[in-house]
Structure formats: C-alpha cells, structure tokens
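Late entry, calcium ion complex.
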Amino acid sequence: MSFQDKTPSAARKGVNLAPILAEAIGIAREAGALLRDLFDKPRKVSYKGKVDLVTDADRASEELILRRITDTFPDHGVLAEESAGGRVPRPDPMPDYLWVVDPLDGTTNYAHGLPIYTVSIGLMVHGVPTLGVVYDPTRDELYHGGVGLGAYLNDSPIRVSAEADLERSILATGFPYDLRVSVDNNLDNFTRFSYASQAIRRLGSASLDLCYVACGRLDGFWELKLHPWDTAAAAAFLPAAGGRITDYAQNPFDIFGLETVATNGLIHGQMIRIIAS
Ligand code: IPD
Ligand code: CA
Ligand code: CA
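Prediction complete; structure with ligand written out below:
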C-alpha cells in the first residue's frame, strides 16, 4: 500500500486550493495522454482475479501520477489503486492531505479496445473529498472542481439534470468483480431499476458515471463495492454541480464505504426507496 502520512502540522491551515487543483489537472492530462498513446498499442494484460484485469497501461499511468504527486507534494499521503493492491480501510489516523488515485478507471473497456475510460485524481483534506479531476482522454473532456471551487467540464460550469421523475430517468450502474461468487452482486437492484426507470446504462467507468450525473447526461447512478479511487475525485465536485451522493440509507457518502447512490438530487429519494424495497 502506498499510503503514508507525512503531513506537517504547519500545513493544516490557510490552504489555497486553486493552485493545487491546477497541478492535479496537469497531472491528469499527462496521464490521460499516456493512456491515449498506449490505447492502440498491443497491451500486456494480467489478471488480479477471475475477471479483474490490469494492463501495463494502468501501471504506467499510476507510476507517472505517483511520481508527479510525490515531487510536487512531498508532504502529502497517497492512496493509489495498483499499489494499494486491494480493498483498504479508512486510514487511521487520516492524513491531512490524501491523494486518492485511479490511474485508469475502465480497465476492462481499455483492455478490449473500448474507448470509455478515465484518469481519476481526488484530494481528501482532513478526511473530506475536497477537490477532484476526472479526465476522459478519448473525448478530451476534463471534469474538475471541488468544495468552494465549483464544478466544470473543461472551461464550462456544469449542472445536474432537472428530471424529477424516476420513471423518465436514465441511470447507470456497474457490477463488482466478485459478481460470480457473491450474492451481493447488484443484479437484484439492476432488475428493480430496469422496471422503475426509463433506461439503464453500464459504461464500465464509475468515475465517468459520476461525472455524467454531475453534467446532466445521466440522472442517477448507483453501485455496490466501489473503491475509494473510483469515487474520491467526482464526489468532491458533484455537490457543487447540484448533485447529491450518499450511501443506500442516505447517510453522508464515505469513499471507504461499500454503497454509492449519486443523483441530481430530485430523484434521490425515489432511488433510495427502490433500493430499500
Ligand atoms: C471499475 C469501473 C467499473 C465499476 C467497477 C470498478 P476499474 O474500475 O469503475 O465501472 O463497475 O466496480 O472497479 O477496475 O476499471 O478501475
Ligand atoms: Ca476504478
Ligand atoms: Ca483502475
């Protein structure tokens, strides 16, 4: 696990987030360019589990991001998917600044040559998702923002949709890698929402699903057993776009928790009721 807390107490006050966000944007763009360059090249794929892949591109992207973060913010903690090596608990103690990194969100798509994937970089400040960048290199779409920073797609402010009726809503979801061996595999809720919504999509990149809720392309998203690196970045700016993100019981969202529901706010209660039914 690459997690480490070296944050000096002097750094606890007076944080100007804008230059930190600008650095994160630069890093996400660099890693995204690397992934785009490697996309058409032959890939080395290995298996972390029965269906859970990792490619040489995931590793190269993570190496680049970790090097850049460590050089720029030597006092900050870092939690990154490939070096974490599996599910991790909420760090105790929590570092003041913790970068949470998915170097390639949408690995299965990427490995199959399906161009739906992102780089996702979030920063937790005092345990709260505070700023985030999600970069979709294929479309050159960069989502960014955070607490007090707004929410943007490239240079334009973004806003969630105005759809208030679940029956007319387009939703997205995903399925955990242990789908074949665990009964908590989301197929029950997939069935329920198939009847209750207008349509469901499975894009294969949870960070992008969350960004699509933030910019109104989707009305809602739910998923079970996501990891902190899937959600940390977008969870930081979804509220600034007018969105709502909680667990299945409407508790405040915890990136280390197992349940995610993210919506335009208007259909949140309706989605929670379906999940509880
Ligand atoms: C996966 C994607 C997918 C979601 C999985 C994630 P990865 O991340 O976000 O949409 O359904 O639960 O693990 O493995 O491509 O980084
Ligand atoms: Ca991921
Ligand atoms: Ca990943």
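The chain has two domains: 17-157, 166-276. Will revisit in the morning.
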